[in-house]
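Two proteins were folded this term; both appear here.
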Amino acid sequence: MAGFTPLASLGSGAGFGGSGFGGKGLDLPALGSGGGGAVAELTGPQKVAIIVRLLLSEGAELPLTRLPDHLQAEITQEIGRMRSVNRATLEAVVQEFVDRVESIGLSFPGGLDGALSLLDGHLSPATSSRLRRMAGASGNSDPWERIAGLEADRLLPVLEEESTEIGAVLLSKLAVSKAADLLGRLPGDKARRIAYAVSLTGNVDPGTVRRIGLSLASQLDAQPAKAFDTGPVERVGAILNYAAATTRDEVLTGLDEVDAGFAEQVRRAIFTFTNIPVRIDARDIPKVIRNVDQAVLVTALAGARDTDLAAAEFILANMSQRMAASLRDEMANLGKVKDKDAEAAMATVVTAIREMEAAGEIFLVAGDED
């Protein structure tokens, strides 16, 4: 029975005998004389109390906090009123409970908040945001479950804007790893003040914590849905990664004239063949060349000109001497490479690197901030 925790059956209100939670508890030293007749004497709440007591005695973890407060209270009160049941009654109650659970064909999460969690990723951002505001307004859901599931990037702006006291409560309700991540992103002075404020949250009552959670959840859900998953710097950088070199240079020159700061951020986001020496760890070069067709790699290396020459030499210098000598021979036999063919080959090498980065096989070194 240790793993048998069908919470929905415990919170059905009518119990599983149909008597409901309104029945009186039998204030007797022992309940029932055995068999089905004994079960008939029990109310629905008493049967639920027996199942809860049995599961807890077997070491099961029952998430009773997911039940409404009044049901948690009634289960607790019923357990407090009861004394003992004999083995025959216990077995009959368990069998009735198991029969009822096994007859269930499909269960639903219960409540709008549960439905939103189930459909997460399947609804449009606008619809999801609107429904979450409705769920928060209903007052039945736990706002902290929603907040704790959000990414740190989404929570950081709220933490930066809110007061020290609210920030302390927010960090206290998050997983330790996520709280540490957020604290590390804050300016030193604010991080210290919030860390100290956490030590003062011991006497905050649950009602206040819930109201804070509802307010924060409302703020987060009120944020407009984003049409793009990435920021403008990343999008422009990704486009220019695949643009021809002349086009890329012209666009960056134009951005310098309009917004030099934005242009510099885009330059840092761009990754081209030229950037290989400063963005790729020398130890990852063997991995890269294994993912690029050798004929394409020879074309890219042989076609390197001007600023790309350093990247070609970096690649050759970080592989085995035997392979480097073989590639140099092939480069010499290939002769002069057309600029168009060289650029296409370099783009293929860059694409392979990007795919390896996305798969977590390699990591790009952060660009120079200076």
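Next, the second protein.
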Amino acid sequence: MREPADMNALARSIRDWGAELGFQQVGIAGIDLSRDMEHLRDWLARGQHGTMDYMARHGDKRGRPEELVPGTLRVVSVRFDYGTGEDAAAWATLAEGERAYVARYALGRDYHKLMRNRLQKLADRIAAQTGPFGYRVFVDSAPVLERALARDAGLGWIGKHTCLINKDAGSWFFLGEIYTDLPLPVDAPASAHCGTCTRCIEVCPTGAIVAPYRVDARRCISYLTIELRESIPEELRPLMGNRIFGCDDCQLACPWNKFAVRHEVPDFAPRNELDSATLAELFAWEEDEFLRRTEGSAIRRTGHAGWLRNIAVALGNAPTTPAVLAALASRREHPDPMVREHVAWALARHE
């Protein structure tokens, strides 16, 4: 039987070990997520998850950690910052129609393996102290209400755009969890500080934030460019601008990001000049080049056809220039019907 005093000391050690492994914050949450599950059920009932059937497939396991991992008593939640502070550069890219905009988190190495490896090392450190214990590591890899758990662990509050916000770090960070059977002392949940601000709602290009704390994924550019495997609804295409993988507008507009402390991580430095590349350059990648360049990158998730579909939409929204028209013409006879359809739409925009 582990004594409470031992758990208090262990919790302090876990925070220290987490910092040594590069996490900017570590907190501990309980497992009661009943109120958040009510919100999730309503969101699913309204069909606002779009084609993400996996959101509903696992039922209430998202809100019941003890069912996902039997024996779970606590969740260790960690924050890993990736923001660079170059928000002005991001806005500048969005303003240049021939350049490609990629969500800041996807410019460098895929965060999943990076964080999972560090979380596993943290679990190993805990085991070395306590002996074998029950746990499971998660990084966006299972039915986990990670933002609700992070809020309850004191890492930040859920903003009106549904991203987690931290007073010192803004919202440019990743989250990860360790579900554990250790009866660790829990942290106080974070309080909310959005106040009357609605900048994230007002700036959303497609109006996806349909109400405070509610995003209709079917209109969200991140969903449209990453999750959706079908044709992008025509009425939303002109609103997407040059965003070809994800969207950051709601975070760029958030006042809490303006003065956030940044932590430079070499792994998240831009690869393949994705922070400056033109749409035409990226559209020219054949499948083998796409696979080679996106190795170890979150971008590979779109697949080559999805990549071309997204860029075709952006080229349709770009200024009419010889380079843009030539790029589109080069894919007019692409073997994938979805790509051809989006290319035809884009060419028609320029006519």
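The first helix runs from residue 4 to 20. The two ends are 75 Å apart (CA to CA). These notes refer to the second protein only.
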